[in-house]
Amino acid sequence: MKIMERDAEDRRIKRIAKEKKATALKDKGNEAYAQGDYETAVKYYSDGLDELRDMQPLYTNRAQAYIKLGKYKEAISDCEWALKCNERCIKAYVHMGKAFMELKKYNESRHCFEKIVEIEPGREKMVKEYLIQVGLEAERENQEMNAREEFDKGEVKARTVPQLLEKLSRPGQMPLFYRGGLELLLQAVTDFLSLK
Fold first, then answer.
1. Distance, CA of 8 to CA of 63 (rounded, Å)
2. What is the pLDDT of residues 7-22, one digit of tens each?
C-alpha cells in the first residue's frame, strides 16, 4: 500500500513540475503574442504542450496565434483539442468559429458561436455580434459571386465599357460587387486598347 501511495505522490510532484514549466512557457508565448510575434508565440505554446498535453489554455492561445498567421485549419485542430480538455471552453468555440468563418465555412462558424449560448446563455449579446459578422461575410461572398456571374453572363457585347459602367452605377451593393465589376471594367478597357 505504501508503494502505491509513494508512486501516486511521485506522479503528483512530477505533474506539478510540468504544470509550472508549461505555465512559464504559456506566459512567454503570451508575451510574444502581445508583441505581435505570432510565430514565436506558437513555438512557446507548442513547447508548453510538449510538457503538458492536457493544458487547455495552451491550445486556445496557440489557436489564436494560428488565426493571426492565417493557419485556420491548425487553429481548428487546436480548438478541438482544447474541447477534449474542457468541453465547455468558450474560448475554443470563439476561435473555432472565427477560423471557420475565414475558411468560408459559415454553417460551421454559426454552429460554434451558437454553442456558446448553449453553454453560457449570458453571452447572448457577444454571440449575436459574431453571428451578424458571419452573416455579413456570407452575404459579401454571395454578392461577390453573383456580381462575377452577372458580369460573366451573356455575350461579349455585355462587357462593353458603357454597359459595365451602367452595372457599376447601381447603388447599395457591397464593395466587392464593385471590386469585381471594376476588375472586369479594367479588363474590358485593356482589351479595347490592345485592339488599337
1. 33
2. 778 888 998 999 999 9
